């Protein structure tokens, strides 16, 4: 009795294990083929390996908006005055695109910081600007190890998808060493950043468009057109009419 029960249970367990692993494999490959279908936590774990393989090569975006061009390094749109580099969860940058900190953007940022300090805001001279593809890879991987992929995706860009890789994005730090979130300073940035050619890139109410939670501290250098964009109340995606939102997988 004991033996036969054990044998039965063992056989049942083996059968279940074989079935479930077959189903998993079939399910995940189907989802990868049809990337539009929603992914379960299991399949998104499976996908992470694929993403690693993908991001080490040049990005290929399937649905490129008519207004968007690609030069092998980055996607861009034609602004009113300048070419506007775009980097979001739909439009990645090439891993080899490594422009460093944009000098014009940096000098405007230093002016903005000095003016905020002069007006009494607790802003540090320190800021977080350019990040190479490789440094973003390390940063993102640390977050994934620490909090898991799903959580990491909520606050950190995957390598190739960070606007910091453009050399045109800067995170402001306060005098305690934290990202700037204080209400007065945040409002000042919304009202005044355009005067230095910047926009507050990730704003409240625009999460579906930008793909990010609000970040009062993250400034994106645009140049002259920052005023029009800022006045419009639109996200960068809405203003130029290009696709944003979350990762497709
Ligand atoms: Zn940032």
Structure description:
InterPro entries: DD-CPase-like (IPR052179), VanY-like_core_dom (IPR003709), VanY/YodJ_core_dom (IPR058193), Zn_M74/Hedgehog-like (IPR009045). Pfam families: VanY. Residues 1-17 form the signal peptide. Residues 103-224 form the D-alanyl-D-alanine carboxypeptidase-like core domain. This protein has 249 residues and is of the alpha+beta class. The chain has a domain at 68-240: Muramoyl-pentapeptide Carboxypeptidase, domain 2. Helices cover 45% and strands 14% of the residues. It has helices at residues 2-33, 41-55, 103-118, 133-147, 149-155, 183-192, 207-210, 226-232, 236-240, and strands at 68-70, 75-78, 83-86, 123-128, 169-174, 198-202, 215-221. It has a four-stranded antiparallel beta sheet with strand order 4-5-7-6. It has a three-stranded antiparallel beta sheet with strand order 1-2-3, with no helix packed on it. The longest helix is centred in the first third of the chain and has 32 residues, at 2-33. The site of zinc ion has 4 residues, from strand 5.
Our Rg estimate from Cα atoms comes to 22 Å
Number of helices: 9
Q: What structural category characterises the helix and strand content?
A: alpha+beta
The CATH topology of the domain at 68-240 is Muramoyl-pentapeptide Carboxypeptidase, domain 2
CATH architecture of the domain at 68-240: 2-Layer Sandwich
- The unreliable regions are 1-55
- The CATH class assignment of the domain at 68-240 is Alpha Beta
Cα separation of the termini? 50 Å
Helix-strand pattern: HHEEEHEHHEHEHEHH
As a percent range, the share of helical residues equals 40-55%
User: What spatial form do the alpha-carbon principal axes imply?
Assistant: globular
Main sheet: strand order: 4-5-7-6
Output mean pLDDT.
83
Associated small molecules: zinc ion
Report strand %: 5-15%
**Total strands:** 7
For the sheet with most strands, the description reads:
4 strands, antiparallel
GO molecular function, one term: carboxypeptidase activity
Signal peptide: 1-17
Region (Disordered): 20-65
Domain D-alanyl-D-alanine carboxypeptidase-like core: 103-224
């Amino acid at each position: 009795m004991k033996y036969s029960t054990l044998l039965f249970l063992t056989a049942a367990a083996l059968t279940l294990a074989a079935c479930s692993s077959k189903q998993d494999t079939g399910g995940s490959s189907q989802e990868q083929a049809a990337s539009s279908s929603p992914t379960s936590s299991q399949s998104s774990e499976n996908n992470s390996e694929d993403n690693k393989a993908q991001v080490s090569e040049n990005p290929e975006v399937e649905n490129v908006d008519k207004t968007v061009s690609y030069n092998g390094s980055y996607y861009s749109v034609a602004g009113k005055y300048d070419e506007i580099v775009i980097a979001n969860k739909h439009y990645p940058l090439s891993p080899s695109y490594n422009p460093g900190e944009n000098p014009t953007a940096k000098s405007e940022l230093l002016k903005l910081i000095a003016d905020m300090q002069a007006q009494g805001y607790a802003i540090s001279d320190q800021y977080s600007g350019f990040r190479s593809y490789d440094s973003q890879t390390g940063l993102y991987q640390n977050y994934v190890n620490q909090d898991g992929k799903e959580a990491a995706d909520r606050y950190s860009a995957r390598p190739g998808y960070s606007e910091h890789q453009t050399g045109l994005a800067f995170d402001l730090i306060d005098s305690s060493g934290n990202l700037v979130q204080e209400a007065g300073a945040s409002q000042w940035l919304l009202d005044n950043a355009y005067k230095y050619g910047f926009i507050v890139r990730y704003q409240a109410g625009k999460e579906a468009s930008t793909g990010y939670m609000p970040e009062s501290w993250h400034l994106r250098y645009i140049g002259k057109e920052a005023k029009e964009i800022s006045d419009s109340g639109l996200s960068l995606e809405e203003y130029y009419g290009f696709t944003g939102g979350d990762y497709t997988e």
